[in-house]
Amino acid sequence: MHESRNRESGLISSIDREEWGNLQPLYLDAIRAAEAQDDRFEGIPVAPPEHLVAMKLAAGTDKDERDAIRLLAKVKDLDVEATRNLVRKFLGPGLLGRLEECLRRAGHPQASRAYSLGS
Fold this sequence. Notes:
The chain is mostly helical. It has helices at about 15-20, 25-35, 50-60, 60-75, 80-90, 95-105, and strands at about 1-5, 10-15, 40, 45. Helix content is about 55%, strand content about 10%. The protein contains 6 helices and 4 strands; from the N terminus they run ββααββαααα.
């Protein structure tokens, strides 16, 4: 286990590389983004919604996917392009298609059109 302390916030983050597997870069990026913004819950940094959606998609459970869809539907200032970039960078093209499906299911106006045989 690797432990690091953020100088500004004083928060200690324990990083278990085996538990996080290849998702560690996404989680570390979410921690950095949370610490860089002003959003806090009782003084604790909160990851931006774009990172939360990416982490929910990475988890891959039905519940996590439903949570991602709710975030996409309800967070009005969510940056869809930034979310796409996070998914592309940290999760790969396979989950980019899953994100687009979630955007469509959330009724998001920036969702890519689903392809069919006639299109």
